[in-house]
Design goal:
Radius of gyration: 48 Å
Number of strands: 6
Number of helices: 7
Oligomer: single chain
Shape: rod-shaped
Distance between the termini: 132 Å
Strand order of the largest sheet: 1-2
Largest sheet: 2 strands, antiparallel
Helix content: 40-55%
Structural class: alpha+beta
Strand content: 5-15%
Low-confidence stretches: none
Order of helices and strands: HHHHEEHEHEHEE
Length: 268
């Protein structure tokens, strides 16, 4: 037998009868011409359609590229999600830090303002409070500060007198300082717009805050630059600067008041 017959099995059942068993040489020639014509027609059809014989290889390359792009996309998506999560975490930390500071300062400012405005005539003192202009995004909007001195009705901060604004500003400063106290701070002529009564109240408050007590467990130190005698009375140490004529320069002088009896607290 032919070796090819052992490898391939040809099935002619689908061919028309005159193609599989021509009866004469003439019929064989006709069959051959018909088959040659079919082959020529199919070849011409193939030539017209111009099939891409490398399409399978190109498809495989495109599928591989698609796989690489999908992996890169997934990696970028995960990185974007991680960045988004980190952003929201930082945003939440910012919100929590702001709210913690605001709530503490808001609760302290009224107490401090009352201490600065309380007197024998007005034992309750004034009222001060903070309000957020935006509850949802508090750090993107403003904070409204309202201060009402004793016996005064509500007015915008701009309508308060210079002394009243100073007392309100000091209350806010001390409230902020109470949140995360620093070792000391400097007050430079904060009493410039204050009358004698308010100067005495501020000086008394500063002296009280420098002494440890149940209400004041963490006292602070302050350096006050002032030209008012009332501040001198409440100080622990006086530091003066004067011109030394002999040396031709300025000279600092200090005077310790702690060796003397503390000043009597006067009603204001």
């Amino acid at each position: 037998h032919d070796p090819l017959s052992r490898l391939y099995r040809l099935d002619f059942t689908g061919l028309r009868r005159h193609l599989t068993a021509p009866s004469s040489a003439k019929e064989k020639e006709a069959v051959e011409r018909e088959l040659q014509k079919s082959i020529s027609d199919l070849a011409a059809e193939l030539e017209r359609t111009a099939p891409n014989l490398k399409a399978v290889e190109q498809y495989a390359a495109i599928k591989e590229k698609e796989k690489e792009l999908a992996a890169a996309y997934e990696g970028a998506r995960q990185e974007a999600q991680a960045a988004t999560d980190a952003f929201h975490a930082v945003r939440q930390q910012r919100h929590d830090a702001f709210v913690a500071a605001f709530e503490h300062i808001s609760s302290e400012i009224d107490v401090i303002y009352k201490d600065l405005t309380r007197s024998s005539v007005h034992p309750l003192g004034g009222t001060a409070y903070l309000s957020l202009e935006s509850e949802d995004e508090p750090y993107l909007a403003g904070i409204k500060y309202t201060a009402m001195p004793p016996t005064k009705r509500y007015r915008d901060m701009e309508q308060l007198s210079g002394g009243e604004k100073t007392v309100a500003a000091l209350a806010l400063l001390f409230a902020i300082h109470s949140y995360r106290p620093s070792p000391f701070f400097v007050l430079d002529e904060v009493d410039a717009a204050l009358d004698a009564t308010n100067v005495s109240r501020v000086a008394h408050y500063l002296r009280y805050k420098t002494r440890p007590s149940e209400r004041n467990p963490v006292p602070f130190q302050s350096i006050v630059i002032s030209l008012k005698d009332i501040f001198y009375e409440k100080a622990d140490v006086l530091v003066g600067v004067a011109r030394d004529v002999g040396a031709g320069c300025s000279k600092a002088y200090t005077f310790d008041l702690n060796r003397f009896e503390p000043p009597q607290e006067a009603e204001v």
